[in-house]
Structure to design on (352 residues):
């Protein structure tokens, strides 16, 4: 029944467009060096303002088949968090990507996490996990109060040491989910409109993703009720070397996909970017054969370096760090402007 409900939900939402607005396109101050870049920025901002003023507040990853949405350049990581929310009634162009293990690196949590991993006494480990939960809940509450709390995509924690201990991995993911949903509940109680979407980390098959999705929905139902569980979008964070057939099958039941170039990333070199772009093209082709309207984004330093290639193959956008985001916005604006000029020239040529 749960699988049928998921399929029905995806089908019902298949025709909703991937909306965006100008809230995430604050690039005008960065455009003074090039007339072409300035033109691209103006195009981005003008188009965004038109959509913003239309009053449609839908926040969805899906787009209509055959419709080319703007190439989104989104924030990746807690280090690029905006402090202030925008004016009420406006929404960001897309979510900020937050990896669950980032919270584990904070000093107070890092010490607790290390002690929990090394603790052999189950009773003591459970007490440490409870303290970890309260720290995670405080971190989730801080996220809700920030600008990124309007819309965030949070990947459940996944580390090599946890992968070797499935029971501990499940326990930590459960604690983080409960902390996130408790923070959402508190935000809603205070009249907020925060949205948290979830990413299941690195499933290797559709069956594995389905199990992770059911786990997330179960915690959502227990914490916030069935209505939120049905509305919460759940995606998959994929390795670049994921099986192509598996990626297509995962796409059938995932609300969105993120190809993670940061997984196993050695250095953000051009060679790594070329390999990532090739892998992305293969994954995207496999996914679009199964689900033409699927939203497929990329993350990590190789994604930022391979932005032009990812744009050309039709990816929905990238998540990138603060250090790479300004350059990525400029390049995306240029590519969008060039593509629109080519379309205008092609249309004009047809009337000659």
């Amino acid at each position: 029944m749960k699988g049928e409900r998921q399929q029905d939900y995806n089908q019902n939402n298949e025709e909703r467009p991937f909306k965006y607005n100008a809230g995430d396109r604050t690039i005008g101050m960065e455009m003074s060096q090039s007339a072409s870049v300035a033109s691209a920025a103006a195009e981005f901002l003008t188009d965004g303002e038109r959509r913003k003023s239309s009053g449609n507040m839908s926040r969805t990853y899906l787009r209509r088949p055959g419709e080319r949405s703007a190439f989104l350049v989104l924030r990746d990581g807690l280090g690029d968090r905006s402090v202030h929310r925008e004016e009420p009634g406006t929404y960001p162009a897309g979510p900020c990507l937050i990896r669950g293990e980032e919270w584990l690196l904070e000093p107070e949590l890092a010490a607790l996490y290390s002690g929990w991993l090394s603790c052999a006494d189950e009773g003591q480990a459970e007490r440490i996990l409870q303290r970890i939960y309260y720290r995670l809940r405080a971190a989730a509450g801080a996220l809700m109060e920030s600008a990124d709390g309007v819309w965030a995509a949070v990947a459940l924690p996944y580390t090599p040491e946890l992968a070797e201990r499935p029971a501990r991995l499940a326990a930590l993911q459960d604690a983080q989910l409960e902390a996130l949903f408790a923070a959402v509940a508190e935000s809603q109680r205070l009249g907020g409109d925060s949205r948290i979407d979830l990413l299941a980390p690195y499933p290797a098959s559709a069956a594995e993703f389905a199990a992770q999705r059911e786990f997330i929905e179960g915690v959502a139902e227990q914490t916030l009720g069935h209505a939120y569980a049905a509305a919460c979008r759940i995606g998959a964070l994929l390795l670049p070397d994921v099986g192509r057939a598996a990626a297509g099958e995962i796409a059938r039941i995932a609300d969105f996909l993120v190809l993670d170039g940061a997984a196993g990333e050695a250095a953000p070199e051009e060679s790594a970017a070329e390999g990532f772009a090739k892998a992305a093209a293969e994954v995207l082709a496999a996914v679009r054969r199964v689900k033409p309207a699927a939203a497929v984004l990329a993350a990590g330093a190789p994604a930022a370096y391979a932005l032009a290639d990812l744009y050309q193959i039709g990816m929905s956008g990238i998540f990138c760090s603060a250090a790479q985001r300004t350059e990525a916005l400029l390049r995306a604006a240029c590519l969008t402007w060039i593509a629109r000029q080519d379309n205008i020239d092609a249309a004009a040529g047809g009337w000659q």
